[in-house]
Amino acid sequence: MCGIVGYVGNKNAQNFLVSGLKRLEYRGYDSAGVVTLDQEGNATLIRAKGKIANLESCMAKKKRDDVIGIGHTRWATHGEPSEANAHPHKAGSIYLVHNGIIENYKELKSQLKNHDFKSDTDTEVLAALIESFYQDGKHPLVNAVVQALKLVKGTYGIAVVSEKNPEEIVVARSGSPLVVGIGKDETLIASDASALIGHTKRAIYLKDGEVAKVSKDSIEVKTLNAEPVSAKVEEIETNLAAIQKGGYDHFLLKEIMEQPESLAETLRGRVDTKNNLVHLGGPGLSEAELRKIKHLIVVGCGTAHYAGTLASYYIEQFTPEITIETVVASEYRYRQAYIPKDSVALIVSQSGETADTLACLREIKKQGAKTIGIVNAIGSTIAREVDGGTYVHVGPEIAVASTKAFTSQVIAMVMFGITIAQAKGVKNTILRSYIEEIAKLPDEISKLLNSDIPNAVKTMTQKYAKYEHGIYLGRDVAYPTAMEGALKMKEISYLDANAYAFGELKHGPLALVDDRFFEVVLLPKGALYEKAISNVQEVLARGGHVIVITNEEHFDLPVDDIVKITTDLEIFAPIIMNVISQLFAYNMAVAKGNNVDQPRNLAKSVTVE
Ligand code: G6P
Q: Rounded to 10 degrees, what is the CA torsion of 542, 544, 547, 550?
């Protein structure tokens, strides 16, 4: 949420800043700005409401060849999206960009009488606070930043420059990521390593409570208590192709189509079909520790939460004597929940930075339970703070709506469940079908994506674009799959879409059925198939407009549309059905002319509460 970039070196800073911001635009996109300094410290500040493209047009009139600067793309928290509220914020000679929230900004603001506030933001308060300690510029900027940060309550990733010292940038982090890229005679700053790809492969990931003074050829990292830190230089693993559209119209479609490969990456080296075993090295739990687990808590937000819910339906099918609770992180962090002895928490997050999920992780650790990350972003805060984990390895997911991460999160968690079951001595004959199907899943998704179905879904979507509401229905494992389908539709098509457990239909939602609604029914073969068929009939009898997604070839009720899947899978057929839900939502968003990759009001990585 929000993106920060910075540059100091010999090249044109504006060029790097704007290209970096474009890469980070998925993190927030309601306004953006950059400031650069010339050798004398004269600043050029350019800010614009809306997308980076607007900033670029403003920049065309103010081209500079300055070699130092900072920039920001914003997802508004305090104050509406406007030019005045866009970062960088100025106070005296100081310019500041900030991700996060300064919680005590009102109290701090009341003490900063000498600053004439021009915005409604908490960030300008921090700029003014730093300036109050810096003023004449006789002391190092880094000292003023540290003094200010010691008074701050909240979260931040910041970059600061001063007109009085046009050779250095000060950066700091607490709860909001910051990466310092090391180039040849240049240092690059970003809140997400994707902005650095193509410029350098070497980077330092700041830790919470660290502050760094950087120039084009030096990086000094300290703690807020002035203790020097010998920061670890790490390699950035992603390549340029992974963050480009690769011929697709949208990142979302690219990411849907990538699922066979991204899931294969999740499985690589972990599934042994010869011996019907799963090996996960990352969690770092011994056989004895796995055997002792009695309770699993699965924590996440949005898609990660639904992935956790679906995985828990699977895990409880084959893991005896374990209770599983799936919780929404923003709720759980404030509940007085009792964590039973021998609990393990699965912390699920694509970005590894979601504020609520991170807060739960810290709380759960305090209570003594072991935490296992199911994370995509390598080196992210959650990945660093968990006791162990399993990276899903799906590569960068750029579209705000999550697709390939969901599929891999579900399977990674099921694999973790299998390792528990293996340790607890569950019979191989029970686990074998799960393992066999997991191994087949990438090919089965590929089969679907290369069939006529994607085109059929596209054609079908035209018919439903005029509807105002969608109801997603399913039973058992199809229910969490329906929840994820409805979320996808809501996020990118702006259609009011909600999911219900089929059995709940007659306890309320059935009253909604009329011509403004369509109903998407996920209907996998299996024990509850006949019951679900009765439910479909109940909807049809009330004039519903039903779309059925099923792997049952004999399905023949007179519904409006049927998407029949041919797949060898039984257990994981809902994952294939979810790919169809993804395609349906994607085509709906395109049909409505929406910004598919950056839906209104949302951001990819929610690093504030
Ligand atoms: C945001 C994104 C969702 C995502 C959720 C959790 O709301 O728009 O796509 O599912 O955050 O993100 P995480 O990075 O923790 O998986």
A: -10
Q: What is the mean pLDDT of residues 516-541?
A: 92
Could you tell me if 236 and 259 lie in one domain? Answer: no
CATH (domain of 208): 3.60.20.10
Domain boundary among 217, 242, 267: 242
Same domain, 251 and 160: no
Q: Residues with Cβ within 6 A of ligand 1?
A: 301-304, 349-351, 354, 357, 400-402, 602, 604-606
Alpha carbon distance 398, 604 (integer Å): 8
Tokens representing 135?
């003023």
Nearest Cα residue to 355 out of 380, 376, 336: 380
Secondary structure in 3-state letters for 3-49: EEEEEECCCCHHHHHHHHHHHHHHHCCCEEEEEEECCCCCEEEEEEE
Across the range 212-221, mean pLDDT stands at: 97
By most ligand atoms within 8 Å of CB, the mutation choice from 605, 608, 609 for ligand 1 is 605
| 251 and 223 both lie in a single domain | no
Kindly report the protein residue whose alpha carbon is nearest to atom 2 of ligand 1.
Answer: 604
**491: domain range?**
452-609
Instruction: Return the bridge partners of 73, or none.
Output: 3, 32
Pairing of strands 179-182, 187-190: antiparallel
Question: Domain check: are 311 and 446 in the same one?
Answer: yes
Mean pLDDT value across residues 447-464: 96
Q: What is the CATH number of the domain that holds 320?
A: 3.40.50.10490
Are 433 and 493 contained in the same domain? Answer: no
Residues 295, 369, single domain; the answer is: yes
The lowest-confidence range among 30-39, 76-85, 109-118, 224-233 is: 76-85
The phi-psi region of residue 323 (left if phi > 0; otherwise alpha if psi is between -120 and 50; otherwise beta) is beta
Q: Could you give the number of structural domains in the chain? A: 3
pLDDT digits (tens, 9 = 90+) for 92-102: 999 999 998 89
Residue 1 — pLDDT band, cuts 50, 70, 90?
Answer: low
Q: Does position 464 have pLDDT exceeding 80, yes or no?
A: yes
Q: What's the 171 CA to ligand 1 centre distance in angstroms? A: 26
